[in-house]
Design a protein that fits this description.
The structure is a single chain. The chain is an alpha/beta fold. It has 2 domains: 49 residues, Helicase, Ruva Protein, domain 3 (Orthogonal Bundle), CATH 1.10.8.420; 133 residues, Dna Topoisomerase Vi A Subunit, Chain: A, domain 2 (3-Layer(aba) Sandwich), CATH 3.40.1360. Helix content is 40%, strand content 13%. It has 8 helices and 7 strands. The strands form 2 sheets. It has a 5-stranded mixed beta sheet. β1 and β2 form a beta hairpin. The longest helix is centred in the N-terminal third of the chain and has 17 residues. The chain is elongated, with a radius of gyration of 20 Å. The relative contact order is 0.10.
């Protein structure tokens, strides 16, 4: 006899595909959903489908957006002279919680990971260089939108550090200041799991590359 009815087993396997969800947690979530009214479960599935259909990547920074430009790229109050480079849109959410950073962002869409077949060409690096070119390049340009600093906020993992060093080699010859999140972030700790105070210290203590 099967351990679970087939529809429930399929649901558990689908939930296990979510990050950080093992079989035990997936099973608990599945039974929780089965206890909810059908209309509430349908609202949840509809919300997921609507978000997936409606959201796109911002044409400038590659953040998630419901328009061509994300809310942060549309905000005139943001400082165009700073660009913080992150791995994923979720990192932007975590950095925004600090309330300390008021510049722009750029989402790489991952990190350089040769063992996983991810090279520089698979990341949003060219569009970052294009943004610098469109903004007038280095600080010597003098315009309001001239980028003066690139903050590399990739995670302090082996792949994140390698990606930061690769970007620094590309960016520094352009005459822009390149910094890296520093103190407050322990080795191997991802931005997703860092609290706001830790990220605030990491921003304040960023070091030159």
């Amino acid at each position: 006899m099967k351990e679970l009815p087939e529809p429930l087993a399929h649901l558990v396997e689908a939930l296990r595909k979510l990050p950080g969800i093992g079989r035990k947690t997936a099973l608990r979530m599945a039974f929780f959903l089965m206890r909810q009214p059908v209309d509430e479960v349908e609202q949840l599935t509809q919300a997921i489908a609507d978000a997936r259909r409606s959201l796109r990547t911002c044409s400038v920074c590659h953040n998630l957006a419901d328009q061509e430009l994300c809310e942060l790229c549309r905000a005139d109050a943001r400082n165009p002279r700073q660009i913080c480079v992150v791995e994923s849109p979720q990192d932007i959410v975590n950095l925004e919680k600090t309330g300390r950073y008021q510049g722009r962002y750029h989402v790489l869409g991952g990190v350089i990971a040769p063992l996983s077949g991810v090279g520089p060409d698979q990341l949003n690096i060219k569009s970052l260089l294009d943004r610098l070119s469109a903004a007038g390049g280095s600080a010597s340009g003098g315009g309001r939108d001239t980028v003066e600093e690139i903050i590399l906020a990739t995670n302090p993992t082996a792949e994140g550090d390698a990606t930061a060093l690769y970007l620094a080699k590309l960016l520094k010859p352009l005459g822009v200041r390149v910094t890296r999140l520093a103190m407050g972030m322990s080795i191997g700790q991802e931005l997703e799991y860092a609290d706001s105070v830790t990220l605030q210290h990491a921003l304040d203590g960023r070091r030159e590359l």
